[in-house]
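re: ur question from earlier - yeah i can do the single chain one, its not a big deal. heres the input i used so u can compare w yours
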Amino acid sequence: AASTFKILNTLIALQEGVVNGKDSLFKWDRQARSIAGWNRDQTLESAFKLSCVWCYQQLAREIGAQTYRDYLHSIGYGQLREPFKTDSFWLDGSLQISALEQVAFLQQVYQRSLPFRPAAYDTLQAIMLSEHTAAYSKTGLAGGTTPKIGWYVGYVVTAGDVWFFATNLDIRSDEQLPLRLLLTREALQAKGALP
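and the output i got, formated as tokens:
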């Protein structure tokens, strides 16, 4: 699942009251991390868009393992291997999901048929919108495998339809990372979902 889990993780955190909106603040602990954009205070919105691992690890420790088990089971999101580390299970391969399962989950998010408050959906939708692609989306990179697995999941709303997508690619070098968005965008353009 990698960082695509931030979609569900955000809903859970909002539903559980661990955060209360897109401007909820994460105070930087002054520990320098490899991605420069993470080295400052974050809001929920910036943490989602920058895929800030330390922010979501902080949320995970507050949410707790049993709460995750309950949500993952009731929603039917992927497969969770036990035992797992509460603050890294979506990063270390303990939580796995297929592209078809991603699409089924995203359809439920779009239809708002999962057990979350309207305000949680509203906040998620606001932070998922990508200005670059006009899609409600999230990237992900599972780096614990060789090759790495790159994800790009989401949906595009057009005048007459909703187009759901879940792309995963073998990533053998950092130069291939942009292919997640590029290939998905080309496919959506070929279908007429994007200009």
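The mean pLDDT is 95. not sure if urs matches, ping me
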